[in-house]
Amino acid sequence: MTMTEIERLHSGFRNPDPAARAMMRWWWFGPDVARGDLLRDLNDMAAAGIGGVECSFVYPMEAASDTFLSDTFLADLRFAAQAAQDRGLRFDVTLGSGWPYGGPHIDESTASRRLHWEREEVLMQAQRIPIPRAWASDRFIAGYIGEGTRWEAPASYTQLQREGDHLIVPPGRGPRVLLMAISRLSGQTLKRAASGAEGWVLDHMNPAAARAHIQAVAEPLVAAAGAERIGTVFCDSLEVFNADWTGTLVEEFSDRRGYDPLPQLWQLTLAQGAGREFQADFHRTLTELVEENFVQVFGEWARSRGLSFRIQCYGQPPVTISSYRHADAFEGEGWGWDTITACRWASSAGQIYGKEVISSETWTWNHSPSFRSTPLDILGEAHDHLLMGINQFVGHGWPSSPRPETDPHSPAAAELGRVFYASAALDSRNAWWDTAPALWGTLHRLSWLMRQGHRLSQVGVYLPARDISTGFGGAGRVDLYKESRLHIGDDLPHAIRTSGLDFDLFDDDAAAVLDPARFPLVVLPHAREIPPETIAWLHAVEEAGGVVLDLGGAAGIGLAITDPDVVPDHLPITTEVPVRILPGAKLVSGVESGVAKNETVAVTTRAVGAARVHFVANTGQATTEVELILAPAGSIGSAAHDRVVERWDAETGAVHMIQRSSGRVQLMLEAYEAVVLVEHGETSRAESADSAAFTGAPDPQPQRVSIDGWRVQFTDQDHSQPVELPHQWEKDPARSLYSGTAVYTAAIEIPDSAHSVLLDLGQAKPHALTDPEAAGLMEASFSAEVLPPVGAAAKVLIDGEEVGFLWKTPYRINLTDRVRPGGTHELALVVSNVTSHRLAADAGIPRLVAESQQSFGLRFGIQTLDLALADVASGLLTKPTLSIT
Description:
26% strand; Ulvan_degrading_GH; Glycoside hydrolase
């Protein structure tokens, strides 16, 4: 029997392609690794459902260490690559140590540079002034004279004549300021470098620097691992602070812009609003040089080796969204579903340039410090990334480390081993690791599903790079991504997402390849300096039936909102915007029933043939009711009454609901709960479904049955003992530093009349921290702002047989197939907490940090380990009930 389109999609969802599994950034400290540890790590990853590694080589954590690129290191790399391949794991390699690219092979001619300005007041008479040189690597660019003082800055400058090592200053008529432009090394060395990798960061605008790094670092790494064993070669975000100069910039600018930059270079020092045209031309030139001399050079080299070049293409020097087009695989980082993030930057590039898979560096600071992350924390942040168009997770990450506790007789038996200075530690040392297959399996299914078809983004948000770059001035602000976020603000993306719509950013280069009919609505956020080619594209948008909305009222195109501080609450659904703004779905709150405006629920929709896949997630701490309004009738090839909506379970792959569609779906989502809704026209599936939702019959009211007589036994105890629930381990002084498991047991009696039996631990309760930093959370930390009913996860057994895991909202599990009406059964909950208790008691990590700093200097600062137990709650924190119908 031939499978239908939906059956094929569901079959893939139940058994997704292994390529969609989450990966882990695998930190090698030193580089100092033992092959037994490497094999254990790879085995643990494979068993948990993790799909591969991204090898990253960072600072040493012990006095003795191998050297980066040594023969022994390269042999270990080859061993690891082969071992990963043998286990069916993907193996990616970071082309360097620490970040950004650089090292001992980079000298003054290829190191990153910045534009340095010297200002001095000079007398009125004519003078010959020696050109200063503070550092041997300084390169003088030009000198300028202007009327004013250092406190009353000149409004303009005139370029001075140079004779040899002197500037010729003509006579003046009053106070004057001498301004000198100097090319100076940025002074930035590699961050978090391994032993032997120390050196300058390379100049991303100098092709000789890229080629030097390829020859000295990239080629040996690829040769050792074997190109045939490598998935992608990776470049982290650029992060070369204040990098705004290169040795050939004057010539490159002249060739590209058609005029000499030197007479106007002083305009870079002007405050925002002055020198706009030159500043925009200058920073546009920097962007082009990074694209051509770094991204393109590495991309072409990788492809010549049969490899794919993966990059986080944002940071400094300034790159824009379209800069990604010279690479093969696009990656972002950072959570923030309703803001402008690096993930949105990358996923927008993917939409523009046809990349199916967009990855993200995920969980970078998840519930810091290390080992406080719960499966719910990890899932909640992953949902946030999925809402931004991410469909490949690269976990940050997995520290490769000896495990001293494997020898119980060792004095170091209680020590954890190595952890990275930042981020979650997502390895098998976590006490809740039995839950890992359920967690990674859920993300595997979601990642695979979010690769099918294409994402529907109804709104295009223009990135006015020329306007944004004019605000950089002379302060070394050259991060176009971060400045774009400030320029656009948070109100616009929030208004779009909470309406249930999605958006993509696009820039001037993208307009050259975008179909004018791509977006029903295009928004111009405070745009002034729009190139003629983009203006022509915007007019084509209007001709294609789209709407251009000018939020700043200055571009002179489309519908203008003259007050730049106003973002309409109903921006995407104004009367001027055509109905086709809804090719996917939108969200509304139940305003009629008194429900507040939606602030936390978002949807991302993918078109898969004639079907629509809607991923809807509650990103907040409270249960929220919303209504999903589907696309108008006929938009997916069938009338509204002929459509079907199915609810698919990402943890199990099962279909939990099939109903005929009325075009509106009511959803009640608990904190951090997400659902997958698949909309299609194959009504035969609904007719065979075992679901009351299809018939419209009301669900019977469940009977709530309390479970009494609980007992608990920790793994270090011989016998169980009675316990009163809720039971928080930290309140017992003997368990205040305990990381591990405890088994809670109770007898349950099932009524004769029972048709359905659910175990319900209860809802997670809102629990926002008033002072996150005092609880150890870094600025970018993600944590689920709830107190869950179990800390952190529970394996459920009936009569000794595993039923499943409770680790996310809603904390309910179906026992119907495992119990008998009229029967009595033993219910067991094997509760595991987090490993931060061991972290708090660990004396080994401070010793390792001190040892590293004594031998290798201050290459990193460890997380706030003294806050490892801040706001941590372990155990069975509510009294479970049975829900029986």
